[in-house]
Design a protein that fits this description.
The protein has about 130 residues and is mostly helical. It is about 40% helix and about 5% strand. Helix 1 packs parallel to helix 4. The N and C termini lie far apart (about 55 Å). The relative contact order is 0.15.
Amino acid sequence: MTPPKRQRRFPKEPLPPPPPPPRPGVKKNPERLFVVAGKDGAERAELDLVTLIVASAVPPPSSAPEQTALLRLCTTPLSVAELSAYLNLPFSAMTVLLTDMLTADLVTARAPLVRQSVADRSLLEAVMHGLQRL
């Protein structure tokens, strides 16, 4: 086996030290949440963590970056909890943002699909008998 022909390069200058980790209890940027959420005096839509959000329009050119990102994410139904995690926004700011978008008809909200809690016994027995015949 032949040795590799490339030589490993080493940095000429030492790398700067990594930034210190944030202290617990210190908020990163509370002003940004106010800019995203706006004033908190308006009525909020009845949303919970499992409400599914679907985009019903393309992002208008004058929309905020968070609204544009949310509309691009919601081409398929996503829950409010998933959107909150993807956009790195707390649930309270997400509900204000979604309420504004619901009133502007940019998104639609619907309850999640609830499946039947107990399967039909006759169907389960038919499957069991079919598997036993194999």
